[in-house]
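Appendix B, example 12.
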Amino acid sequence: MTGILTVFFAFLLGSFPSAYLFGRFFKKVDIRKVGSGNVGGINTYRAAGFLPALLTVTCDIAKGALAVVLASALNSDPVIIFMSGLLVIFGHNYSIFLRFRGGKGLATTFGVFIALSPLTIMYVILVAIILTVIIRDINTAFGSAALSIPVVLYFQYQQFDWLFFGLILAAIIVVKHIPDYQAYKQGRRKIK
């Protein structure tokens, strides 16, 4: 029963709409209706400024880390820990408080890996930096770098459960970045 409650709490924690709340509090703006409409740090920066964006990113990282730390403290079952990591990100991306709209999960994923496997996130950030230099679009670069997560996890741990966790996590992030990829395909964005 503790496992089910832990996983459910992770989803609720992920659903906490920090970008929406900080946008409303600081600039009286509905982040879903301005800029890209994304409920995340970059759109918060563009629509509400540095401080709301900093608070958003900090909060999103913290909720990812907290979900994993709490799951680890309450359960020794790696499935519950992995599920908590996945569902905090899923909750962020599809918040029940915003009618299943949300962010793209990058900062929350960073928080999950700070608590779960800090070395992994360093490799993924390196891939993202290389992609940022190539395509000059930090958001799409970090979203695309998520594809390296399962590979990094597999080589790092050489266990199927880590690979499976990485594949699901990468899919959750990449799905939210499909509009970015479509914009490149349709010519609305260009690699600089």
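The CA atoms of residues 45 and 53 lie 5 Å apart. Residues 117-192 form one domain.
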